[in-house]
Structures are given as C-alpha cells and as structure tokens.
Amino acid sequence: MLLYCRAGWAIFAPFVRKERAPRMDLAAAIRTIPDYPKPGIMFRDVTTLLADARAFRRTVDELVQPLAGAKIDKVAGIEARGFILGGAIAHQLSVGFVPIRKKGKLPHQTIGEEYELEYGVDEVEIHIDAVEKGERILLVDDLIATGGTASAAIKLLERAGGVIVLCAFVIDLPDLGGAAKLRAMGKQVTSLVAFDGE
What we know:
198 residues; alpha/beta; Rossmann fold; 11 strands
C-alpha cells in the first residue's frame, strides 16, 4: 500500500496480513424443495442463492474464474435462470449477452433446435443475428440435469456459427448424466455444486 508523509514523499506501508474469511458453502445457499414438480423429485432452487448478495457474487466470480486469459465474445444464457446468471457474467466480462428462449418467445427472425422431453419434444430458439461466425461463446445455466436443453443450445449456437468455449452451471446432477453428455460432445463443462439423485 502506498502512503504519503507530510513532506510529500511516497512511502510503502508495511504489509499487514489479513485473516482470510472462510469460504462460503454455496450448496447451503440453495434451497431444496422435495416432490416438486412431481413426487420423487428434489427441486434445487437457486432463487435463495440469487437473493443472497454474497453468494450471488461468489457464484458469478467462480463461474468466470475458469475463463481467466480466455477470449470470450458473447455469453449465452438458457431461459430462465440462465438469463440472470448470464447477464451478470456478461457484465463482468464486458461482452454481449444472447438469450436462448423457448419457441415463440423472440420477436425477430429465429433459428431453433428441438430436443426430447420425457413425453414429447420442445424447442429452443435464438435470433438469427444473435451470433456472428467464429464468435467464442460461454454457455450458462443454473443447472445441468439430463443435458437435453443444454445440448440443443450448443447445437443451435454452433449452427449460428458460434464456438462454444465452456458450458458453465451452478448445479450438476451427475446421476442424470447431462454433464457427461456434453463432454461426449467434446465440450468443456464446469459446475460449482453437485447433488446426488434427481
């Protein structure tokens, strides 16, 4: 630390060692709701984490940390909680943000990618001009479960010309195999918290 004495000379203050605060347990900031949206499901609710300023800040910092030194052009967030996280991360990286939305939610011309649900199919879309060819993309969502939505988002962004640098999630449910599915597609995947089961 640089200090100035009365005579105007710059002097260095002695280094003072500060006690580092204990690391926050992000898992403890995530609420678990049993039997939602159906019996047997343990819903991992990140709204409690988002409401905690310190936990939210640390989450954004840790999702950005693996990108140190990497060039990122855009952050893409999957509807809906991926918008909150992705917007904060895009702000921190000083890059643009791309919303990946359910079919029919975007007003301009779109391209879409279908993915399978337990009973039927769904589709995600982006605006046709959201990504330029060769742009390096960070894909963000709150949770990776089976990987259906995330894999569709990857295919969609790549069809638009983007290059997926990293897929980042707050929560991984490894028993459902989603992260492994993305890795099998050749993608790097990171998550901050893992929960067993569904």
